[in-house]
Amino acid sequence: MPLLINGRESVDPWVSLNADSYQQDARSELLRLKLTKAAIYPIAIYLEHSAELQANSQKIGLLVTGDDDLSQIASLLPNVSLIAIDFPVLRDGRGFSIARNITRRGFSGEVRAVGDVSYDRLDNMHRSGFNAYQLDDQRYGPQTLKAFSEISVNYQPTHPR
Amino acid sequence: MYLYNNDDQQLVEQRVEQYRDQTNRFLAGTLPEDEFLALRLMNGLYVQRQAPMLRVAIPYGLMSSKQLRKLSDISRKYDRNYAHFTTRTNIQYNWPKLEEVPDILGELAEVQMHAIQTSGNCIRNTTTDPYAGVYKGEVEDPRPYCEIIRQWSTLHPEFAYLPRKFKIAVTGGPEDRAASQVHDVGLHLITNAAGELGFEVLVGGGLGRTPIIGKVIKEFLPVEHLRSYLDAILRVYNLNGRRDNKYKARIKILVKALGIEKFAELVEEEWLGFTKASDLHLSAAEIEKFKGYFADPDYSAEAAENTDLTAYFEKSADFKAWYERNTVEHKVAGYRIAVISLKPHLLPPGDVTDLQMDLLADLADQYSFGEIRSTHDQNLVLTDVQIQQLYPLWQALSAANLARANIGTLTDMICCPGYEFCALANAETLPIADQINRKFDDLDYLYDLGEIQLNMSGCINACGHHHVADIGILGVDRKGENYYQFTLGGSSKTDASLGKTIGKAVAATEVATTVEKILHVFVQHRTEDETFREVIKRIGLAPFKEYVYATSH
């Protein structure tokens, strides 16, 4: 799955928690993640095991969805290096505001769009505060970067990342 | 009016090419249909029963003669020589070809127009009082603030995929000619005790399946905070509005579920915490800059010297009737506001032909500083006509079937296009509008009835604003037959209220006679000078129900 970071195709150093594996055997899945250098946990799971995970010397990323309670995120930001924001379907635009909510608090790590990420929304994502995009193989190609320059003038400030 | 600078122009031109690319990818099969659907809607393109429909934005209803000529040209070149004005003060074409839409947008861009956000789950065209800037009783011209909202909301990256559509209306004072209380956000320019200018802010109004009158969220918002406060409202809505059911996704449902106090608290937290002191704050210089685009035109001082129309009135009783019904007092002596009725006899309300558009553009140039406005009740307005020029203006309008003196009367109805033109509609509206027009063609009778708003929608989505009319008519479908349900006592004006249903729906053939019965009860009960609305307030709906549904008369 191609990953664009700051406009470049990049190798993903992050490992994400597998929800199915976690459901079947939470301990093993947590252990698998804890042994990596950088792991992305769904926010609820991270909060459940925060003491244990904070003691672990790895980079922490959080997966946030529109249904999560955003009031909890602010206090977690200093401890994390990546926020992955889920776009469950094309019409669900909560992720744009979640990104804005996080970046304006001064979060300087990676803000990554995951889920239904497609060409025609990349620039909206960029301008809302994202700097990384996980795209399906069939939605990625040499033309993809053009999405960021289709419209080069804006009435709203873009929040450079 | 606001004129594009290089950046504005570049934005619409790039938007045309972006949309052209989206259309090409869709036609080539590389952009899935469901994705293209969302993208084309955000650019005003629906696919209706018979053909696509393209809705073009007219920001706060203000256009230049040059723009109107272009709209006319487009109707000739790409459509069937006519177009239709909507309750969002936009204009729509009923027969464009999907593959030609990028070319139409290209032509629109040449005259600083576009179709951006005329549909879809985003911030739609902001509407305002059609008399903005020229009305005597206004607190302040709302147009500079409308333009500020237009710029802030255009291609806003964060608010393009809202739970549902979002509509904002602004009034220049306490008189409401923009239906602001049935908008997602209504803004009323007011002054506080210290004489400072601000907005009373309403939120959570709307029509459709769940009609609600907006509630006050802020009693006085200084104008400098307009943008930052709207931004806070939109963010709270985007994050918290329902996504699981599109019929419950409008902000009105969120406000109702949370309660206005809780919703206001969330907005306040967002506003004070982040947006208020951000670059969304409007400096005095920035506000002045926007005001500068809407400075008064060069009014003639001589116009006030002769305002006597007696000779013309003697010459033509029709002109006198038109003057009385269709013109409004202007803030500058010697001028009047002229309302052009798009509700001719037996033709679709809000429709205008290419030739009429060309003529109106010429008349705007000749009599009204080259500008023309569209209204939320689907008429047009020339705001700055010298009183002595009203007669030749009327003559020219009359010759083009544009001078029906019915503004504010029963036949000045708001009406959606109905089943024939809209894929959502359940019932026909245009033949019913004709039926009503046939029955009530006597202008003297209409004048005697006084101000009556009749609105009609072909389905529950209420594009014809039937809930907020003195007489509202909603078309419903029952096993393939059209029936029409009546509501009475609604208003979209300052005393906004929702009409109440009077009983079971009537057959299509019975609509005009039902209107007649309703009017009969009104005439029976009214005292001198009492309006329809006042009678309803005084006697309630019972006498109407009784008479309309009585078994025989």
Secondary-structure map:
The complex is a heterodimer of chains A (161) and B (553).
Chain A: E1 3-5, E2 8-10, E3 15-16, H1 19-24, H2 26-34, E4 38-42, H3 43-48, H4 50-55, E5 59-64, H5 73-76, E6 82-87, H6 94-103, E7 110-115, H7 122-128, E8 132-134
Parallel strand pairs in A: 3-4, 4-5, 5-6, 6-7, 7-8
Antiparallel strand pairs in A: 1-2, 1-8
Chain B: H1 6-27, H2 33-41, E1 45-47, E2 52-56, E3 62-64, H3 65-78, E4 82-85, E5 91-93, H4 101-110, E6 127-128, H5 143-153, E7 168-171, E8 185-191, E9 197-203, E10 215-222, H6 226-240, H7 251-258, H8 260-275, H9 284-292, H10 310-315, H11 317-326, E11 327-329, E12 335-340, E13 351-353, H12 354-367, E14 371-374, E15 380-386, H13 390-399, E16 414-415, H14 430-439, H15 443-449, E17 454-457, E18 471-478, E19 481-488, E20 500-501, E21 506-507, H16 511-525, H17 532-539, H18 542-548
Parallel strand pairs in B: 6-7, 7-8, 16-17, 17-18
Antiparallel strand pairs in B: 1-2, 2-5, 3-14, 4-5, 4-13, 8-9, 9-10, 11-12, 12-15, 14-15, 18-19, 19-20, 19-21
Task: Point out poorly predicted stretches of chain B.
Answer: none
Q: Could you name the CATH topology of the largest domain in chain B?
A: Sulfite Reductase Hemoprotein, domain 1
What fraction of the residues of chain B are assigned to beta strands by DSSP?
Answer: 15-25%
Shape of chain B: globular
Low-confidence stretches of chain A: none
Q: Which sequence of SSEs, written as H and E, runs from N to C of chain A?
A: EEEHHEHHEHEHEHE
What is the domain tally of chain A? 1
- Figure out the total of helices of chain B: 18
- Beginning-to-end CA distance, first to last residue of chain A: 23 Å
Structural summary, described in words:
The complex is a heterodimer of chains A (161) and B (553). Chain A is of the alpha/beta class. Chain A has a single domain (3-148), classed as Alpha-Beta Barrel (TIM Barrel). Chain A contains 7 helices and 8 strands; from the N terminus they run βββααβααβαβαβαβ. Chain A has helices at residues 19-24, 26-34, 43-48, 50-55, 73-76, 94-103, 122-128; strands spanning 3-5, 8-10, 15-16, 38-42, 59-64, 82-87, 110-115, 132-134. Chain A has an 8-stranded mixed sheet. The radius of gyration of chain A is 16 Å and the shape is globular. In chain B, the strands form 4 sheets. In chain B, strands 16, 17, 18, 19, 20 and 21 form a 6-stranded mixed sheet that branches. A 5-stranded antiparallel sheet of chain B has the order 1-2-5-4-13. In chain B, strands 3-14-15-12-11 form a 5-stranded antiparallel sheet. Helix content of chain B is 36%, strand content 17%. Chain B starts with 5 loop residues before the first helix and ends in a 5-residue tail after the last helix. With 553 residues, chain B is of the alpha+beta class. Chain B is globular and about 60 Å long. Chain B folds into 4 domains: 6-110, Sulfite Reductase Hemoprotein, domain 2; 134-292, Sulfite Reductase Hemoprotein, domain 1 (2-Layer Sandwich); 307-389, no CATH class; 414-548, Sulfite Reductase Hemoprotein, domain 1 (2-Layer Sandwich), CATH 3.30.413.10. Chains A and B meet through helix 6 and helix 7 of A and helix 1, helix 2 and helix 6 of B.
